[in-house]
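Record 1 of the preview.
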Amino acid sequence: MRRALLAIAGLAAGTTALVVLKGAPEASPVAQELPAPRPPVVPSGPAPGRSAEPTPTSAASARATVTPKPRASATRTPGSRTGTSARPTSVPRTTTAPPKSTTRKVTGSVVSNEYGNVQVQITLSGTRIVDVVALELPQETAQSDRRSEEIDGRYSGTAGQVVQKQGADLDTVSGATATSTSYRKSLQAALDRAR
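->
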């Protein structure tokens, strides 16, 4: 029984000594003095018919506590670490998604005249007109086909009057008044839908 108690007391004292010697990562490697372990109080043995439980005094002595000496303050040199190293605060990352494409196509209504139908489609980037296409123009006769090509050439496309003027205030094509007017009406209908 004595051997068991001595073994427990020795184990506790040894563990405590290791903890004290090892210390924190910044502790100096110089060994620190430890108080001498106290011999455990061993009871004289259990009385007949009683269990062999340790008495409160023997249990307390088996848990030998060693109070470590306060550490000497370490002089900090640049680049050295201390036990209470502060982590750098992280700044939340803000991610900016690429802007969504705001290009959209809007089709005007079909406008009829004595030569045929006219329908215009505009392409907008945000609120700016970037392209215009005539989906339908009169082409029943050679003369109406020629006039339609002239109107399409002046008004439509990325460099046409519609993109330049950013609206339906267009110059009338000489000799194609009816088709020019129909084009402007379909264009205005597309602009109204785009709002």
